[in-house]
Structures are given as C-alpha cells and as structure tokens.
Amino acid sequence: MDRIEISQDFVDAYARDGCVHVPGAFSGYWCDRLLAASERIIDEFKAGKTTAENGYADGSTERVIVNARYEGRMAFNQAVAYDPDFNAWQKESCAAELVATLTGSSTLRYLMDTTFIKWNADSDTATPVHHDIAVYCFKGSQVPSLWIPLRDVGEDDAPLQTVIGSHKWQDTMYRPPTSSLDTTLPPGYAERSEIPARIESEGAEWRTWLCKAGDALLIHPYTLHASLPKKSEGHMRIGFSSRWMGDDVKWAPNALSPTDHITDRNLLKEGDAPPDNQYPIIWAKH
Questions:
Q1: CA-closest candidate to residue 202, choices 228, 176, 167
Q2: Which end of the chain, N or C, is more open, meaning fewer C-beta atoms within 10 Å of its C-beta?
Q3: Crossing angle for the helix pair 95-103 and 8-17, nearest 10 degrees?
Q4: 137-176 tens-digit pLDDT
C-alpha cells in the first residue's frame, strides 16, 4: 500500500475550513491507472456497450453504472465496486489512511463513488451549490468526499469551489439539486435559494481549488460546494469522488434520501451504524 505523511497543518485546515487540498496525494501510478480505466468506461459508453438507463447493454448489473449523459458532460457510479482498477485503488492506495487521518476516525467503511466528466465549454457544465449530507441516508460529520482530479484542473476546467467554514452550519441542510420541488422538505431543511443569504450573513468566502492530477481535496459532508463552468475545449475534466463513513455515521433517512440501495433498510432503526454485511469496516487504526 502507498504511504502518505499527513502533517497536523492539513488536519487543522480540514477542521477549520471544511475542505483541505493535499498536493500529490496519489502517485502517478494510481492517477494514470484510474485515468485509463475512466477513459475505457467512457469509450464503452460511447460505443453503445452501456446505456444510461440500464447499465450494460447485456443486462448485467454487476458493472459500472453510467448514471447520466448530457451534452458535454456525463458521470458514472460504483466504479470501485465493479471495476478492477478502481477496486485496486481502494484496497492498495493510501486513500483510507488519508481520509481517516484527516477526519480523526478510528475506522472507515466505504460508501460509494461517482466520477464526473466534463468536456464542453458551456455554462451548463457548472455544478450548482449544495452539500452532500443533505441526500445521504447515513448522516454524521465523518462521511466526507475525497475528490481526485485525474487530469490537471485550471481556472478554465470547471474547478471546484467551497464555502469556507460552512461545514460548521449544521443547524440547516439544504434541498439537494436532484430533489423535486414537489417533495416536502423534512424538518431542519431549507431551500437552496436561501444559501446566498446565509453565506452573506456569516461573512463566509468562496475558495476556488486549482489542482494537479493526483492531488486530493477532502470535503466535509456539510461543506457547501459547487463548480465553475468549463471554459476550455479539448480538455476532458475527470474528477473521481469517493465517499467514506467513519465512527460517527448513523442511519438517519428522510424523504430526500433514497434508500433502495440499502439491503437491510427495513431492519435498520434510526441511529444504527451502517450494516456490516453491506458496508464492512475496511480500515481500522492499529
């Protein structure tokens, strides 16, 4: 397994800002391997071997799932579960140790992953402001997103942005961009239209993260974040986002959090830890 030394400065930055940039977190070996795997999945989709609606054209569900295709952007889910290169990264790289060290968790479970691809220079390639916690059926402060650019991300390549310190605003969650406005907001939620006023009232600032391939951003689950639109043509921006669960994560679904993917959802009670049969502990502090 790769090893990485994380100084206290990185730990403090994550706790203070709700996002930390770790330059060169992953070696060229892992970056090149994941990039090649991503390009293979993209090519298979473009060749008609997969469909956005049904996964692989042969009907198999034991494969990477392409969850969306738009003009100039697409995404695919669960690469770690179903692709050998991504699976090797989860098991053999420093990812788990990195996440655990920065969050202070003594154990880690793997939740899921999404790889985001953007290639057109178009305002529609921007990602609207949101925080990930709002849609999760498992909630806690230790369910972060580890975002890794597989190619360099400059100012014109739809870089990520975060609202510094917004992870501390845990009194309110905001409707996810994927949620229908017809769905009644659960208690403790507000509309995303209220986010700008909250940022202004808190005196918070946006930070834009320019990254090299193989860098890592660890984003707190409550941190408000977005991406700028892609402005450059001919450079496919590929960002691999994996999500992890630490010690404090508990079952807490609501009307905005899908649960169909949880095998034991009917057996779980609010406050239960993630079930070991579906989300085993894959890293523990010695």
A1: 167
A2: C
A3: 60
A4: 999 999 999 999 999 999 999 999 999 999 999 999 999 9
